[in-house]
Write a structure and sequence with these properties.
single chain; about 160 residues; alpha+beta; Beta Polymerase, domain 2; six-stranded mixed beta sheet; two-stranded antiparallel sheet
Length: about 160
């Protein structure tokens, strides 16, 4: 059994609860993480479908409780960044994801972040990705080979 806990994101001075787990058994936790892995893989495929570059999925489960997966991609323009973010938003709704908890940078040409609780999408410009360097910041998080899973899910 896992103890009760609440995850928080801090936006400015405001803590926002993103998930509450109560007496989650190991099997339901594993099932939830697998569902999140599948959604993250589908989100990564959506990024690639809209010509996102160097798309990666980072598995944060062994590193931090703030999220299970980061999906990180690079776009070549602000318009492309917004298109990717909107497409992933539609995909998440279609597949029954938790409602989006937060969004930052919707009008930015550097970085758009969409938080779905277990999955966080980061859409960067090339300069923004180099500046924030999330893969280095979260270097302990394993990279997921998402392409085979996304392909399998698309065939189902």
């Amino acid at each position: 059994m896992i103890a009760n806990f609440v995850r928080f994101w801090i936006f400015g001075d405001i803590p926002i609860a993103t998930a509450t787990l109560k007496k989650t058994t190991a099997s339901t936790l594993i099932e939830r993480q697998q569902a999140s892995r599948e959604l993250a893989s589908l989100a990564a495929q959506a990024c690639e479908d809209l010509k996102g570059k160097e798309t990666v999925v980072l598995d944060l489960t062994p590193v931090t409780p703030i999220a299970d997966f980061f999906v990180v991609t690079t776009a070549t323009s602000g318009r492309q960044m917004r298109a990717i973010a909107e497409d992933v938003e539609q995909l998440m709704k279609k597949h029954g994801s938790r409602p989006r908890v937060g969004v930052e940078g919707r009008e930015s040409d550097t970085w758009i972040l969409q938080d779905y609780g277990d999955i966080v999408l980061h859409v960067f410009s090339s300069d923004g990705r180099a500046l924030y360097d999330l893969e280095h910041l979260w270097a302990d998080a394993p990279h997921i080979d998402w392409k085979p899973l996304a392909k399998k899910l698309a065939e189902e």
